[in-house]
Amino acid sequence: MTEEQNETRRLAIKALQIAREARDDAAAARVLATAASKDVGDLKAQLQAHTKVLNALRETQLEHGSRLGRVENRLGRVENRLGRVENRLDRVEDHLERMETEMRNGFAMMAGGMSRIAELLEGRES
Fold this sequence. Notes:
Elements: H1 3-125
């Protein structure tokens, strides 16, 4: 074999090794690409699930906000009614105080009148 044939043979063997390595690298790249594609699919599914949860949470918050608004309105109406009841109770208290004063004055007048009657009756007996 000549020097040129040896060089050609050596280059052919080297080319075959490079081709085998390239084929092996391509196979490994396909395996990695398949795994990466699966990982991306899993992440996409998780992201969609998180998005659904966040949307459901938003809906719940909107519902709670609406309900809270209605509760605040009802509470405002109850507070108004309570204020009116307090005003009525104040008027009742004022009326009772006036009646108590009138009764005390009436009893005082009756006591004075009864004293006078007792004096008159005692004066007749003597």
